[in-house]
Amino acid sequence: MKRAPIKKDAVKVMSAALTVSMALSFAACGKKDTGTETGSASGKGGTEEVLSGSKISADSPWFDSTMNEIIPAVNTGRKMASAPFSRLSGADDKYIVALTTGDYDIPANFNWENYRYSDFAIVTLSVVDRNTKQVKNTIDLIGMFSEASCIEKVLYRNGKISVYYTIYDPYTDTAVYREAELDPSTGDILNEKDISGYSLPDRTFDIGDYLVETGMIWEEVSYFKLIITSQDGERKEVVINDNNSDLYDIPLILPVDGSKALVPCEGKNGMIYYMVDLETGALTSENAKDYEWLDLSYKSSSFTGSDGNVYFLTTSGIERIDMKNRSVDKIFDFSWCGINRSSLSDLEIADCTGDSILLCGASPTSRPYGDPDHSAFSIIDLKKAENPHAGKTVLELYVPYGYVDESIADAILKYNEMSTDYHIEVSNRYKESDYYDDTQYIDSDDDSDLVNLTGSQKMSNALAMDILNGEGPDILLNTSAFGQLNNPAYLADLTPYIGDLDPDRYFTSIIDGAKTDGALYQLPICFSVAGIQTDPKNAGSSGTGFTTAEYAEFLDGALNGKDIITYGQAHYFAKLFNLSADMFIKDGKADFSDPAFIELAEFVKDHVQQNSTSWSDIENGDVNGPVAEVAENVVTYKGMFSRDRVTPGKEEAFNIDCYGMSSYIRGVVNGKTFTAILGFPSSDGRGPVYKPIVSVAISAQAENTEACAEFVKMLLSDEVQIPLAMNDDFVISRDAFRQGGRAAVEYYNGDGAVILFGYDPATGGAVNTGIVFSDKNIDDMENIILSCSKMDTADAAIDLILIEEMPAYFTGQKDLASVTAIARDRVQKVLDERN
Fold first, then answer.
1. Can you give the C-alpha Rg of the chain in angstroms?
2. Within a 10 A sphere around the Cβ of 120, how many other Cβ atoms?
3. 311-366, pLDDT tens digit by residue?
4. How confident is residue 756, by pLDDT bands cut at 50, 70 and 90?
5. Architecture of the structural domain at 526-692+751-834
6. 361: left (phi > 0), else alpha (psi -120 to 50), else beta?
7. Nearest-10 Cα torsion for 704, 707, 708, 712
8. Dihedral sign, CA of 334, 17, 371, 668?
9. pLDDT by residue (tens digit) across 293-304?
10. Domain 64-384 belongs to what topology?
11. Strands 348-352 and 759-760
12. CA distance 387 to 37
């Protein structure tokens, strides 16, 4: 079973203090003044309140914050294999307990017959005084349980620390599972028992007087066990299955009344619900329709409050599930405080009353080009307070999924500090589950693409309608995939606001390639490069890509007839159409009589299989189509824009979405001579395309376009571009790109070589391949970026028309002229309706 993949490009990068100096004082224009306070209006298409144009009052929601960081104790005299990672094990009024795990390096010439987990593992507990935020005790669990083959889980509750660990006997191939209870103040073992008869827990939930733990059982059909423990220590197990259908997740367990709890289960048949009696263990099935109000997508780190309600983190804040009133309410938005929202989304809820919130977790310090010796553990207290931004007008920034990259979140904070009149608040008003069918069974690239296109069409329609009605957001982040919006009715042309950028400082070709009919509606901030990574000698006559005839020759020759673009005919054609759409749709007019359109259609009919190969067939090794390992000298990828390689080997080419220098260097290493990334087949042999990872746009109905444009210009600054580049993204600043490139070259010539070439136990370092990276690799990648032809953006409505109509030609039911006439008329009707 495959779940429908929802596209989500989000990269997490280091924070940077912005030093951009600007004056922000603008007169309101564009939208009419709603005269409302934040959150008091609502839009037709959105699932969150409309923020744009509302005024912030003194009693608008705001939380003052204090942050403390602790550095967990590890043996700094030993080299780390990777940065130790800290997470929350639990908290109460007295203590906060952090678990830190990691590994020490294994020395050169190590005798693996003598390997013991306890010799190289890092597993320590930091017991922190909740009031002072000082570490009161450090417990080395490896030293305490040296016989353990693995420490599985640590949980702090009811004033005690529970440690779950495994002892494995390799001679009998048996494992014993044990649980030990520790005193947090002393580290003394209070109690220890064998729990081999029970499953080790995946997640734990406090439900009244009971602890409920979930454990997933991986058998022919996956199912779950609930381990219910009462206050007197009595345990019972409850099995949850779905009539021989796989279950995948239990995201939350919700207290209902007294000793009962609702157990939602995500499975092959969608979301199903059970009621469990915690006292008796009795399980009854519930009607899913009774819980249609309960959306459990994108929820993590649940916490059961003393009020009986469940609080959980989303990508944009904290929400509360009120089972009594059958409602889900937002009680905290990441925009309601002065802390980077990206950092907050990585944390866990340690305590929550609504007016007071405690969040804890690891502070991300590890970067792609080097690992630190430690990771900090953050403790953030949030308390309701008077809003310091009272009097400002809200500019709503919409981003799919509610997630904002860390450096972009820093820019938002800086903007809000510096502006006297405007305040950016982030929203995710369009609930993805309302548009994307993530319950549909999919088993191929074609299936996946269809679900994504259908969802994108619905979501972009809702967004476009709200904009036309004057109820849309002001700033749109990461909506470049919604090609429908590239229209003056929906978005403002950014060209007058960013001006003529210096091509020596910026990849202006990337900006130009994002334009539609000469207007820049969506500005790429950082991006990936999509194309075919191979030896430059394989390029067609353009040197940057392939004509359809040249690709057919490459396909029949070097690729041995086995394509590395893995879609079936209809979706394959739609992808190639998108990459050359500027040739077929101009100024709102569709023309499919162009010889280039005919050439693409004929190529697909003659050289592409009708449907993409089933993922199940790929996984089972039963492959008859040209989409997986089909020749010993070919490696392929799932999907034109997937990063997951199917089979390593002696490659002739990769179909790659190259997201940064690390990705490019890996391709060079795997292919040895693969220094080129070429364009997909086209009529003119154009170069590769690029796909924004972060993009920004301004609504045509924005509250104040100039105020929004000041934020856009901040994203072009070094303070944003350099952190993105150092986080392994391609950026439009050429200097920042080269800074990131030099860091990558230095890293992969040093400690990072182990990642590329593997570990050599004889030397304790990387396997010596003789490969050395240099500025030439940076130059090569820079030239590839300069060769990019255009931004990869899909107009989902048009793609879906082509996918519906073109198979009649590919299968021989109709001639091409008949098919293109129908397709062209349908596409033109869509374009006319928008205009």
1. 28
2. 17
3. 999 888 999 998 888 999 999 999 999 999 988 988 999 999 879 999 999 866 55
4. confident
5. 3-Layer(aba) Sandwich (3.40)
6. left
7. 160
8. positive
9. 988 877 778 888
10. Neuraminidase (2.120.10)
11. unpaired
12. 12
